[in-house]
Amino acid sequence: MITILAGGTGSVKLVRGLYNVFKDIGVISNVADNFWHYGLYICPDIDTIMYGLSNNLDRDRGWGIKNETFNFLSYMKLLDIETWFNLGDKDLSTHIIRTLLLKEGKSISEITNTLSKKYGIRIPIIPVSDNHFETNMVTIDDKIVHLQEYWIKYNGALSLKDIVYKNIKQAKINSGCRRLLEKSKLIVIAPGNPISSIGPIIAVPGMKNILRKHRNKIVMVSPIISNKAISGPSEIYMRAKNIQPTIQGLVNFYSEIADKMIFDKVDKVEVEEKIRNAYPQVNFSYANIVMNNSKKESALARHIVSEFC
Q1: What HEC string does the chain produce?
Q2: Which of 156, 174, 242, 278 has the smallest number of Cβ neighbours within 10 A?
Q3: How far out from the chain centre does Cα 252 lie?
Q4: Tens of pLDDT along 275-297?
Q5: For position 9, what pLDDT does the model report?
Q6: Positive or negative, the Cα torsion across 188, 194, 197, 203?
Q7: What pLDDT sits at residue 46?
Q8: Nearest by Cα to 137 from 233, 204, 229
Q9: Terminal CA-CA length for the chain
């Protein structure tokens, strides 16, 4: 089995590729972007994986359901309700079912399992924790906003001085995650945002120790090419955490838990000449890591399997 630590829109591409190539995979999902909105519990990263694996994802947007309509949101706007977060009419069904099951006392992992089956998914998708914790952005004037609010409502325009994981100390790792990591022959850190997508998974108390224990079977796939984020706000968030938004910064960030790293072929010279000697314990590998179509998703997945499984 291959387990993927996943979060954000970049991760689903690799999850889809590994599923197409290897089949026997499991996903540990970020939950720190979960939030309450209109009285509904929204889990963007979990839903993106479910929609992606069930061929329901809107690939152009990278989120939500394909061929979506937004009548609900239009009527909310007509009634003078804030509509900064895009909730499609089909997508709404997932959030309503999840919220109803939460009110019946079900856990997020139980609900995710139920929803996955409804979407016809046959692999485990396990939230890293059943406890609610969230990524909060701290602005330079000490305003604290949820990640979703920061990026969508404010378009990422507020200057940041820090990013914190609210209530992380109370979070407990799901037992299913421990079992998945133990029995996997390879653990892949997907090319998600190191701070807002992968960072919260690693930050759950006890998780870093588990990953250190399995360091020899962990491979990190870079979300950075030529010292620029492939997509999204990784550079902004890494700077807010005083981490260089570069290949060097990324290697330093993950070298404690991963002894295999994949960078794009265009970065081979920089890694070999400037970085490799400082990290003799890391096995560096190179591939085309931009996954802008299904063939490239599968090609990167085949590279991972052939190099490290």
Answers
A1: CEEEEECHHHHHHHHHHHHHHHCCEEEEECCCCCEEECCEEECHHHHHHHHHHCCCECCCCCCCECCCCCHHHHHHHHCCCCCCCCCCHHHHHHHHHHHHHHHCCCCHHHHHHHHHHHCCCCCCEEECECCCCEEEEEECCCCEEEHHHHHHHCCCCCCEEEEEEECHHHCCECHHHHHHHHHCCEEEECCCCHHHHHHHHHHCCCHHHHHHHCHHHEEEECCEECCEECCCCHHHHHHHCCCCCCHHHHHHHHCCCCCEEEEEHHHHHHHHHHHHHHCCCCEEEEECCCCCCHHHHHHHHHHHHHHHC
A2: 242
A3: 19
A4: 999 999 999 999 999 999 999 99
A5: 86
A6: positive
A7: 98
A8: 233
A9: 10
Could you give the count of Cα atoms lying within 13 Å of 27 in the half-sphere of its Cβ? 35
Summarize pLDDT for 91-110 with one digit per residue, the tens: 999 999 999 999 999 999 99
204 token code pair: 């759950």
CA pair distance 170, 59, nearest whole angstrom: 35
The total number of residues shown for the chain amounts to 309
